[in-house]
Known about the structure:
alpha/beta; Rossmann fold; L-2-Hydroxyisocaproate Dehydrogenase, Chain A, domain 2; 2 domains; 6-stranded parallel beta sheet; 3-stranded antiparallel beta sheet
Amino acid sequence: MARRSKITIVGAGNVGATAAHWAAASELGDVVLVDVVEGVPQGKGLDLLEATPVIGRDCRVVGSNAYDETDGSDVVIVTAGLARKVGMSRTDLLVKNAEIVGRVVEQAAPRSPDAVLIMVSNPLDVMAYVALKKSGFPRRRVVGMAGILDTARYRAFIAEELGVSVEDVSALVLGGHGDSMVPLPRLTSVGGVPLEQWMGPEKIEAIVQRTRKGGIEIVNYLKTGSAYYAPSAAAVQMAEAVVRDKKRVLPCAAWLEGEYGLCDVFLGVPVVLGARGIERIIELELEDSERRALMASAQAVKKSIEQLSL
């Protein structure tokens, strides 16, 4: 009998538990849910396991406060950390979440030395850097979930405005996960038709700005939490690309070593994602304004990285 893939999800809060739900519903493999709070991962894991007969999915789901159950994972999704609250910027989360993520990676990485680490904790690009340094993994096996989420928001807003299917909106958002992200209207199309033929520049710019503030828009509604359905779905899409070796072309936060003229920074760029992690970084031909925006985004991420002493 073939071995099932194993997906570890660290953090059993809204993002982590919902990621476990998406993973089980997609039958990606066995799921291990880890959290420091006693009883929470065990209870949520058992509840999800008991749902598998209803949805007709064969997978083992287990919750734990320790990391022994995670041994030999193919993918480790890290969602642990403090959630952003109203009035809190991603940078406000920096030092505390770096400590949390550092401890997580130091425990998870040695137990799954061949895993792909998918980082979701915020500030996303900086936490991916922490994971790279703490794990000692090659850069292809540490990847941040950002571009898929940002692109999904951008696509959803366009589809909503035009009254068309989200499936027909093709788009790309590059850069850091935050206000400096770089949506690319020039490369956006709906049913193969360029976006500029569907709407004027003012409407496009309004959607770009809404995309940049997509996370805080949800925080302002929820008051006591942040987004979790879309972020967790995006992380599991990445996990699926790895465990099923799909070689998806997806915008992800990757450690750059010269690509786009940038070094020593995690930044959202299109990659080919498969069983080995990031199998290729795709370099687009950018216009001057787009390149300047990407450089500015990279500088914002580097500034945050420099606040850490790793």
